[in-house]
Write a structure and sequence with these properties.
8% helix, 9 strands, 47% strand, 1 helix, seven-stranded antiparallel sheet, Phosphorylase Kinase, domain 1
Length: 120
């Protein structure tokens, strides 16, 4: 994709023990977060339920309902695990749509791992 920029990442564990990964990226003057976590036990959750979950877990808070852009889709990773991929628009141009997010760590150019779960 032209103009696609990886900004940073965050990882942690939700209150039910489920690990999550957040990736922040931008394209065409729009910045986004994508949050990944297992669908196990959450297979039937709807879009409003996903939004409530990411807010309740403190992954993101939104400024207001009128400018909340949050959508989720199921995705299967390279090891065959089904995940939720939750996409959130953080901002576009000069507008900011979220109040707060988890901390975002920059990607390093060194050979440091881009995960907290790497056991090197």
């Amino acid at each position: 994709m032209d103009g696609f920029i990886d900004i940073g990442w965050c990882e942690g564990v939700l209150s039910d023990g489920r690990p999550f990964r957040v990736e922040m990226w931008a394209q065409d003057q729009v910045s986004c977060l994508t949050i990944f976590f297992s669908t196990l036990g959450l297979e039937a959750i709807d879009q409003q339920g996903i939004r409530a979950l990411v807010e309740r877990e403190g992954l993101v808070s939104f400024r207001d309902d009128a400018t909340t852009f949050c959508s989720a889709a199921k995705w299967v990773d390279h090891s065959g695990h089904e995940l939720w991929s939750v996409n959130i628009v953080v901002g576009a141009e000069r507008d900011i749509y979220v109040r707060d997010t988890v901390p975002i760590y920059r990607y390093s150019n060194a050979e440091e791992p881009h995960t907290l779960f790497d056991q090197r």
